């Protein structure tokens, strides 16, 4: 069972991405959604494991950048992969994301099947 976290302050976007993941992938998934980085970080502190995280940048309470800074200080998540999934078209955001070793990809919303196949191919095996 693959564990997916969707971290985006826009609930309809989370619902859309959950539908895409469930409809187009071929492995069993557990999907949890969070409306800001703090909620996701609090969850990860209590639930060690390997996750695939789709993270928005601009959110209230704790932004994606703040999440990434804080994430570096928690343990128990070896093998977790984080993908920035944002509406930002600012090239500086993509450059900034590349500076975080935990970030494995950067994509403009919405999540696409092509992006999943290219970066998270194990969801199709």
Structural notes for this entry:
The protein is an alpha/beta fold. Helices cover 38% and strands 22% of the residues. The chain has 5 helices and 5 strands. It has helices spanning 11-24, 37-46, 64-71, 91-98, 113-119; strands spanning 2-7, 29-34, 52-55, 81-86, 103-108. Strands 2-1-3-4-5 form a 5-stranded parallel sheet, sandwiched between helices. Helix 1 links the parallel strand 1 and strand 2. Helix 2 packs parallel to helix 3.
Mean pLDDT: 95
The secondary structure category is alpha/beta
Could you give the order of strands across the largest sheet? 2-1-3-4-5
Low-confidence stretches: none
In angstroms, what separates the terminal alpha carbons? 12 Å
- Global morphology: globular
Tags for this model:
single chain, 125 residues, alpha/beta, 5-stranded parallel beta sheet
Compact summary:
The protein is α/β, with parallel strands linked by helices and 125 residues long.
Write the layout of secondary structure elements.
Layout: E1 2-7, H1 11-24, E2 29-34, H2 37-46, E3 52-55, H3 64-71, E4 81-86, H4 91-98, E5 103-108, H5 113-119
Parallel strand pairs: 1-2, 1-3, 3-4, 4-5
